[in-house]
C-alpha cells in the first residue's frame, strides 16, 4: 500500500498549463491528462484543493501595459479564472471526480461563493474544491491566492504546477545553463528574485511556514511523486 506524505494539498494550476502547446484557451487533451493525474492522488486518499489561474485567457498586467486601467484588467483576469474553473470542473466530472467550485468574486448564478467552512467540509468528504477568482482583489495573483487558500485550508503543502520542473538559478526558458535546486529556502528565493512565484506569495508561505513544491505539470506522474514525498521538482521551505 502506497502512503502519501501529505493528507491535504493545495494545487496551484496555472491557466497556461491548460493550453498545452496551443497559444490560447483550453486544450481538451491536456485538461483530461491533468484531471487523470489529480484523480490518481485523490485515490491515494489525499484531500485536494485547487487554485486555478487565468493566464491562458486573460492576464491583467499585459492589458495594463497596453493602456487599460489595471484594476479593470485584473477583474477581467479573475473572471477568466472562473471560466477555467468551470471547464476544470466539467473535465473532472467526465473523469469521475466530484468537485465543487467556489469563487472569491460573486457570480451566484454560476458558482457558489467562497465559504471557508464549507470548503473544508467538501475536502473532508473527499470532494475536490476548485477556488476561482484568485483572492478577489486586483493587484494580486493566483499564486498569492494559492498561498492564502492553502493557509486557510490548513494544507500540508502548496504545490505550484507550472511549465518548468522546479526552481532554477535563473529562468531556464531563457538560460539553458540554469541549474535546478532540489531544495531552497524562501529567503533565498526572495533575495535572489527567482521569479518562479511572486514575492507576495513566497512571503505568505514563509511567514506561515507553509511548505511549497514547484514542479512541472507536463511531466507524467510528477504530481503523484511529489505527493508521495519523492524527490521531484523543488521543495521550498523556511
Ligand atoms: N529562477 C527560475 N526558476 C524557474 N522558473 C523561472 C525562474 N525565473 C523565471 N522563471 C519562469 O517562471 C515561469 C513560471 O512562473 P509563471 O509564469 O508565474 O507561472 P504560472 O503561469 O505557472 O503561474 C516558468 O515558466 C519560467 O520560465
Ligand atoms: O487575486 C487575484 C488573482 C488574479 N488576478 C488577475 O487574474 C489574472 C490571471 O491570474 P494569473 O496571472 O495569476 O494566472 P496564471 O498565471 O496562473 O495563469 C492575473 O493576471 C490578474 O490580472 C487578480 O487580479 N487578483
UniProtKB/TrEMBL annotation:
UniProt EC number: 2.7.4.22
Enzyme class, UniProt record, top EC level: transferase
Reported regulation of activity: Inhibited by UTP.
SUPFAM superfamilies associated with the record: Carbamate kinase-like
Catalysis performed (reactions): UMP + ATP = UDP + ADP
GO cellular component: cytosol
Residues annotated as binding ATP: 12-15, 55, 59, 162, 168, 171
Positions that bind UMP: 54, 74, 135-142
Keyword Zinc: no
Pathway info: Pyrimidine metabolism; CTP biosynthesis via de novo pathway; UDP from UMP (UMPK route): step 1/1
Gene Ontology molecular function: ATP binding; UMP kinase activity
Boundaries of every Aspartate/glutamate/uridylate kinase domain copy: 7-209
GO biological process: 'de novo' CTP biosynthetic process; UDP biosynthetic process
Subcellular location as annotated: Cytoplasm
Role of this protein: Catalyzes the reversible phosphorylation of UMP to UDP.
Family per record: Belongs to the UMP kinase family.
Protein name according to UniProt: Uridylate kinase
Source species: Nitrosospira briensis
Highest classification ranks of the organism: Bacteria, Pseudomonadati, Pseudomonadota, Betaproteobacteria, Nitrosomonadales
Amino acid at each position: 500500500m502506497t502512503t502519501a506524505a501529505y493528507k491535504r494539498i493545495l494545487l496551484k494550476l496555472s491557466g497556461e498549463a491548460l493550453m498545452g502547446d496551443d497559444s490560447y484557451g483550453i486544450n481538451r487533451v491536456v485538461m483530461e491528462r491533468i484531471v487523470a493525474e489529480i484523480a490518481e492522488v485523490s485515490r491515494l486518499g489525499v484531500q485536494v484543493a485547487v487554485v486555478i489561474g487565468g493566464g491562458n485567457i486573460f492576464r491583467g498586467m499585459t492589458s495594463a501595459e497596453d493602456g487599460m486601467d489595471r484594476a479593470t484588467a485584473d477583474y477581467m483576469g479573475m473572471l477568466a479564472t472562473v471560466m477555467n474553473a468551470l471547464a476544470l470542473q466539467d473535465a473532472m466530472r467526465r473523469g469521475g471526480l466530484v468537485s465543487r467550485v467556489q469563487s472569491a468574486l460573486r457570480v451566484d448564478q454560476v458558482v457558489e461563493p467562497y465559504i471557508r467552512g464549507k470548503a473544508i467540509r467538501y475536502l473532508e468528504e473527499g470532494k475536490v474544491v476548485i477556488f476561482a477568482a484568485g483572492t478577489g482583489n486586483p493587484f494580486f495573483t493566483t499564486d498569492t491566492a494559492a498561498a492564502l487558500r492553502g493557509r486557510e485550508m490548513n494544507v500540508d503543502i502548496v504545490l505550484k504546477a507550472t511549465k518548468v520542473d522546479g526552481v532554477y538559478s535563473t529562468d531556464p526558458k531563457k538560460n539553458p545553463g540554469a541549474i535546478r535546486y532540489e531544495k531552497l529556502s524562501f529567503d533565498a528565493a526572495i533575495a535572489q528574485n527567482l521569479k518562479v512565484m511572486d514575492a507576495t506569495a513566497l512571503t505568505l508561505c514563509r511567514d506561515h511556514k507553509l511548505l511549497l513544491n514547484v514542479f512541472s505539470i507536463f511531466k507524467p506522474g510528477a504530481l503523484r511523486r511529489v505527493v508521495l514525498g519523492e524527490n521531484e521538482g523543488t521543495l521550498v521551505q523556511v
